[in-house]
């Protein structure tokens, strides 16, 4: 076990930095390393590590959502308002629905399994979008109309919408795979219940931590433990526990001091540094190149069609927003990258033993490999061409 951990951490850091130096997202290097040391190539990892892959992916997703929740700000949300709400929902649902329909037609899948693929692919990548938008925000690109802030706010909620709908389709698939209207009708209940769990945990935990004057590492430890508890309770109650995790993070930053918020952000950034190494290496270790090759043509058709549908959704969502055509087009390009969420949830169907699970994972990895470097390049290349540079508003 220790030897496998050493390989993952040491080589992970090396591959991560090397990939960044050649101008590619480090995610690509970590996935490549995972495949190299995984069972389909050199087979250097012990079986127990691969068996823990699903749990590690969930932990990584919890860290992502806590960070996303803490990163949301009430004033920021007020500023971008209605447009952010539309952007966080319409493009995601349109992309997921398009992929679902195409998967049913091209792969002859049942509705529920096709829906799993649809909403595995529908989520955007906070690992690429968040640092890219923060960089643009700092440099002032698009800040005359708050474009980077708008993308940040919308992307965070977009992932929660995709994950919530994915969870519903996974549940539907596990129950037999057919279309049942009641499963879709329960989605609002799952969302509301998930949010309430996060809100309750946040208020109770804040009260307890203040009452007993918990500080330092203990403070961070209780927050991380509470995040895991919210997810587990959501699983037990069959509601959107992951949305509860993000709501928990949002309430924390709005109800605690700035000093505590800074500590939480710093600590969870450190957790993510290690977590993403394990997440992307272990997802790469599960990749069977043969399956990716078999699914590559149809997979690419589905991926590209989904991205185009998302772009249409962005254009619809920004009607009447005051943004010009170039700014709206830039937001569409900013939503191209897939990576973090696909790595975290791409293997869920496989770990649940569902039909087409290996192919869903393969297409998810294909989406990462194609869209992550392309999306990062599109953001950097077109920001100066489509956005106006102005001193940051924040």
Characterise the protein shown here.
It holds the Pfam family Na_H_Exchanger. This is Cation:proton antiporter. The structure is a single chain. The chain contains 19 helices and no strands. The chain has 394 residues and is mainly α. It has a single domain (54-273, 294-344, 358-386), classed as Na+/H+ antiporter like fold, CATH 1.20.1530.20. The model has no long low-confidence stretch (mean pLDDT 86).
The helix-and-strand class reads mainly alpha
Kindly report the CATH topology: Na+/H+ antiporter like fold
The end-to-end span amounts to 46 Å
- Total separate domains: 1
What CATH architecture do you see? Up-down Bundle
Q: How are the SSEs placed, and which strands pair?
A:
Elements (H helix, E strand, L loop, with lengths): L1 H20 L4 H12 L9 H5 L1 H19 L2 H14 L2 H18 L3 H12 L3 H14 L7 H28 L6 H5 L1 H25 L4 H22 L3 H15 L2 H28 L3 H29 L7 H10 L5 H6 L2 H4 L5 H30 L8
Helix pairs in contact: 1-2, 1-14, 2-14, 4-12, 4-13, 4-14, 5-9, 6-7, 6-9, 6-15, 7-9, 7-19, 8-9, 8-19, 11-12, 11-13, 12-13, 15-16, 15-19, 16-19
């Amino acid at each position: 076990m220790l030897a496998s951990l050493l390989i993952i951490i040491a080589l992970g850091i090396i591959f991560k930095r090397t990939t960044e130096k050649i101008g590619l997202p480090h995610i690509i290097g970590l996935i490549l390393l995972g495949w190299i040391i995984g069972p389909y190539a050199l087979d250097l990892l012990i079986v127990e590590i691969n068996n823990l892959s699903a749990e590690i992916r969930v932990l990584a997703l919890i860290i992502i959502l806590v960070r996303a929740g803490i990163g949301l700000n009430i004033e920021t949300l007020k500023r971008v308002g209605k447009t952010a709400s539309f952007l966080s929902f319409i493009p995601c649902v349109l992309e997921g629905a398009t992929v679902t329909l195409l998967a049913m037609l091209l792969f002859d899948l049942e509705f529920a399994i096709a829906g799993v693929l649809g909403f595995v692919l529908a989520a955007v990548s906070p690992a690429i979008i968040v640092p890219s938008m923060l960089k643009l925000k700092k440099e002032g690109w698009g800040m005359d109309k708050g474009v980077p802030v708008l993308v940040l706010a919308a992307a965070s909620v977009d992932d929660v919408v995709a994950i919530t709908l994915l969870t519903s389709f996974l549940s539907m698939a596990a129950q037999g795979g057919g279309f049942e209207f009641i499963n879709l009708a329960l989605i609002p209940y799952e969302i509301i219940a998930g949010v309430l769990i996060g809100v309750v945990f946040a208020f109770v935990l804040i009260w307890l931590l203040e009452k007993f004057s918990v500080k330092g590492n203990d403070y961070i430890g209780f927050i991380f433990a509470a995040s895991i508890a919210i997810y587990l309770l959501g699983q037990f109650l069959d509601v959107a526990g992951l949305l509860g995790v993000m709501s928990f993070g949002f309430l924390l930053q709005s109800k605690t001091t700035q000093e505590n918020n800074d500590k939480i952000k710093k600590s969870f950034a450190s957790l993510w540094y290690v977590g993403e190494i394990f997440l992307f290496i272990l997802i790469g270790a599960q990749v069977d190149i043969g399956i990716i090759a078999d699914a590559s043509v149809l997979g690419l058709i589905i991926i590209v069609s989904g991205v185009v549908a998302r772009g249409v959704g962005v254009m619809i969502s920004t009607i009447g927003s005051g943004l010009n055509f170039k700014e709206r087009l830039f937001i569409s390009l900013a939503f191209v990258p897939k990576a973090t969420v696909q790595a975290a949830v791409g293997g869920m169907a496989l770990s649940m033993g569902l039909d087409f699970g290996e192919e869903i994972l393969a297409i998810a990895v294909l989406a990462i490999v194609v869209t992550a470097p392309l999306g990062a390049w599109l953001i950097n290349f077109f920001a100066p061409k489509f956005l106006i540079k102005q001193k940051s508003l924040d």
